[in-house]
Please model this.
Amino acid sequence: MLLIKNGKVLTMAGINYEQGDILIDKGIIKAVGENLEYPEGAEILPGYT
Model:
C-alpha cells in the first residue's frame, strides 16, 4: 500500500485539496482526501504543492 501525503490534489470531480492525500493499493486509488488513515507498514511518499 502506498500513501502520497500532503500534496496538491486536483480531482475530476472538482474537489481540490491543497494538502491532500492519495491512498493506493495494488495500483488502484482507494481514497483521496485530507488526513487519510492508512495501515501500518504503508509506504509514505511526500506530495508536492
Observations:
- The mean pLDDT is 96.
- The chain is about 0% helix and 60% strand.
- Residues 1-26 form one domain.
- The beta strands are 2-10, 16-25, 28-33, 43-46.
